[in-house]
Design goal:
CATH architecture of the largest domain: 2-Layer Sandwich
Strand content: 25-35%
Mean pLDDT: 90
Number of helices: 22
Largest sheet: 7 strands, mixed
Number of domains: 6
Radius of gyration: 44 Å
Structural class: alpha+beta
Length: 811
């Protein structure tokens, strides 16, 4: 947003320098990024008239001109501009003049002819190129015929002005108008705002007789006002108007278009002027575009529209894209005599989507996108009518057509006065709070002992809650008046929860066992459930869908960690990294009635492990192939380090994702913890993996529920331990865990360790039986055990195994 300092002074009495004002505005949250002075060092440049312009006798592309600055004296000037003509009023730099860049004008001879000065172009005067018409960029700057000879070009072009460049925050869209910036300045300086006096004559003919407005979609167009002006004369705008528009960064076009842009900048209300003669029946229809409907906009481009875009049409055709750009078929041209001025309020979201989809951004669309003052639409169209009468000789028709289907009420906010100081940490008096709010045009409707009811001005769309009012008080009173204090509160030492400590412990144990942590997306493709051979009844198939997924591969929340782990294995194997041990500690998401029962999904922390290939080898060891027992050992180590007891592994044959003969459920204290085993060969094929992959899934929340066992410190034993082996023959279906349980119970306290060290089937072992060997370690804390003590216990163990499992000693 760029604003002329002189323009701003028309609305409020400013008695400080532009730099001081910029600092005060910035300190109150309306940031001024730069103050740009328009006079770039011009001296002694005045308005002259070209009396004569003939070809230079010695140069085909030069002209020999006679210029006067008072109608009496004459200066001979050599000019190279192609557009110089006799009778033109031009900026003329006299000998001794200075131009931007410290360029000094001297007498010179060009192709043998003396030149006594210089006719200037706009660029040579330092005028912003973006605000010039194409013809003004190429040749000399041609001034209006009414320009007075001898007048300083600085005064005529308003170059004794400066421009404030604002860097506004998104919530302060109200400051996209000069008047609202003037209101801010008035509040800061304690001055009154002088609003423009709108007064014009109307003819007897009424706008309602020649114009109609129909709104077919009131949700997208809340209000539409039309006013008709006849007998306008299209011509260049006066210099003062052009100057203000150039300061705002806008290019002057003609008086009608410039007036709509002027009101846009002054009041923040976008306007559009239609050539009334091109509107069928003088009727405006506001409707959504038809699918694949097209319109050629003012920039000459054909636009393909969607059925979500809002159009301004007459009964036959589209004439504008609402809030974005007008149509070429109804633009104001040199032949226009009657105009219909549009002033409306369009839905901000719809304008933003339309503008983005079409790649069209304009000063109008920027304001509509952020939300404008709906109460200004009539004032703005009347202001435009006044200027059309004054600057275009227009005859203004009586009244307006105002289609306002659902009037919007002003925002009312209740403010507790004590809350202002409580939040800001200040001591602002209640009267001062009211004074500040009133200076910003907030209306105090009701006053109580410690509260006020405030009506928000309609242009402040960013204010809706008490905290917004408190912010207004803070910035006007001065942010620098808020005392600097340290926050005071009762503090406590931060520490991790038991759950966080458990997860950290699990990760430490896994990495200590040589596994690498992986982190996969929580989103999966539903086809993974088929790859994992889940049955149709499996509740894990009932995954939660993602409303706006990144891709089809990430359309559902995962109910198992296996897809991510198996994909990681596959990617590594494809890169010839075949010996793998990975784990992931993450959440799975189970619906549990979401969303039908309005309950949130269950998010369960789960530990997933996957291993395959060969253990690390070295020159003395060729390595060991990973198997079921290797993964089982990792899990046992995890549970032992977490001090959990009563660990059992029970055969599993009903999980379709796992090999039916090489899988086990894991129980801790009779509660199901998870599952481990070899991946089913078909599942491995589905994921493009070689065979022999071992995976496990553990419910971390069960571990948390069971808690950590106590850490016990024991004195190192003083007495020696005794090792005895026990090899027995039992039926094949008897699990080793059952045998270990009996041995441990019978062995009592003196049996300090048991380990399976051999399993044999074959010769000398009957069919359907197996030989399993245990290493038993006996030790007492207070004495050296005798052979008799050990033999007695050993015999009891053998007898218990024989009685319960019909076990026999292996010969």
């Amino acid at each position: 947003m760029r604003v002329s300092f002189k323009w701003l002074k028309e609305y409020v009495d400013i008695d400080i320098s532009p730099e001081e004002l910029a600092e005060k505005l910035t300190n109150t949250g309306v940031a001024v990024e730069n103050v740009e002075y328009l006079n770039k060092g011009i001296e002694n440049v005045v308005i002259g008239e070209v009396l004569e312009a003939v070809k230079h006798p010695n140069a085909e592309k030069l002209s020999l001109c006679q210029v006067t600055t008072d109608g009496k004296n004459r200066f001979q000037v050599v000019c190279g501009a192609p557009n110089v003509r006799a009778g033109q009023k031009v900026p003329f730099a006299l000998v001794g003049a200075v131009l931007p860049g410290n360029v000094k004008i001297k007498k010179a001879k060009l192709r043998g002819t003396e030149s006594q000065g210089m006719i200037c172009s706009a660029l040579e005067l330092g005028i912003n190129e973006d605000s010039l018409n194409p013809e003004q960029k190429e040749g000399i700057l041609v001034l209006d015929d009414s320009a007075t000879l001898g007048t300083s070009i600085i005064d005529y072009l308003g170059l004794d002005d400066c421009v404030l460049e604002f860097d506004l925050t998104p919530n302060r869209s109200d400051c996209l108008s000069v008047i609202n910036i003037a209101r801010e300045v008035a509040a800061i300086l304690g001055k009154e705002v002088k609003l423009p006096y709108v007064r014009f004559k109307e003819i007897d003919k009424t706008t309602e007789k020649v114009a109609q407005v129909e709104i077919k979609d009131p949700d997208l167009c809340h209000r539409y006002v039309a006013k008709v002006v006849e007998g306008v004369e299209i011509k260049p705008s006066p210099q003062w108007l052009q100057h203000k528009l150039r300061c705002a960064g806008m290019r002057p076009i003609n008086n009608v278009v410039d007036i709509t842009n002027y009101v846009l900048m002054e009041m923040g209300q976008p306007l559009h002027a239609f050539d009334y003669d091109f509107l069928r029946e003088g009727k405006i229809i506001v409707r959504k575009a038809h699918k694949n409907e097209k319109i050629i906009t003012l920039d000459g481009n054909e636009r393909n529209l969607t059925d979500e875009m809002l159009l301004i049409t007459d009964p036959e055709k589209a004439v504008a894209i609402a809030g974005v750009m007008g149509g070429l078929n109804s633009e104001v041209t040199e032949k226009t005599t009657t105009v219909l001025i549009e002033s409306a309020y369009f839905n901000p979201v719809n304008v933003r989507r339309t503008s983005t989809a079409l790649g069209l951004r304009s000063e109008a669309s920027i304001r509509f996108e952020k939300g404008i003052n709906i109460e200004t639409v009539v004032d703005a169209v009347n202001r435009a009518a006044q200027l059309l009468q004054d600057l275009a000789g227009g005859r203004v028709l009586k009244g307006v057509v105002d289609n306002y289907p659902n009037p919007i009420k002003r925002t009312i906010v209740e403010l507790e006065l004590n809350k202002v100081n409580d939040i800001l940490g200040t001591n602002i008096k209640h009267d001062r709070i009211k004074e500040i709010l009133k200076s910003l045009n907030f209306i105090v409707r009701e006053e109580k002992e410690n509260a006020i009811t405030v009506e928000v001005p309609p242009y402040r769309t960013d204010v809706s809650i008490p905290e917004d009012l408190i912010e207004e008080v803070a910035r006007i009173d001065g942010y620098n008046n808020i005392p600097t204090t340290l926050p005071f509160s009762a503090t406590s030492k931060g520490q991790k929860t038991l759950e966080q400590k458990l997860r950290d412990k699990i990760m430490d144990i896994m990495t200590a066992r040589g596994l690498s942590e992986v982190i996969n997306f929580s989103f999966i493709n539903k086809t993974n459930f088929d790859k994992l051979l889940f049955s149709e009844e499996d509740e894990r198939r009932n995954a939660i869908s993602v409303i706006n997924p990144l891709s089809e591969e990430q359309g559902y929340m995962r109910t198992t960690l296996l897809p991510g782990l198996l994909d990681t294995l596959r990617r590594n194997i494809y890169r010839r990294n075949e010996n793998l041990g990975i784990f992931e500690l993450g959440k799975v998401y189970l619906p549990k009635g979401f969303p039908e029962k309005s309950t949130l999904p269950e998010e369960k922390w789960t530990l997933g492990i996957a291993v395959r290939g060969t253990l690390v080898s070295h020159w003395q060891n060729k390595g060991t192939v990973v198997d079921f027992y290797y993964l089982k050992g990792i899990i046992e180590d995890l549970l032992i380090q977490l001090k959990l007891n009563s660990i059992e592994f029970k055969p599993c044959k009903d999980n379709p994702s796992y090999h039916p003969g090489r899988t086990a459920y894991i129980y801790v204290e009779d509660e199901l913890l998870g599952i481990l085993g070899e991946l089913h060969p078909q599942v491995a094929d589905n994921y493009g993996l070689p065979q022999r992959n071992y995976v496990a899934e553990l419910d971390v929340e069960v571990l948390l529920k069971l808690g950590h066992g106590p850490f016990m410190l024991k004195q190192l034993p003083k007495y020696p331990a005794v090792n005895r082996d026990l090899a027995i023959v039992v039926k094949d279906e008897i699990p080793a865990s059952d045998l270990l349980k009996v041995i441990s119970e019978v062995g009592g306290k003196l049996l300090v360790d048991i380990e399976v060290f051999d399993l044999y089937k074959g010769n000398q072992i009957p069919q359907g039986y197996k030989s399993i060997a245990f290493s038993l370690i006996f030790q007492a804390e207070d004495r050296t055990l005798t052979d008799k003590e050990i033999n007695d216990i050993h015999e009891k163990i053998h007898k218990a195994l024989a009685d319960k499992f019909k076990a026999s000693l292996r010969a």
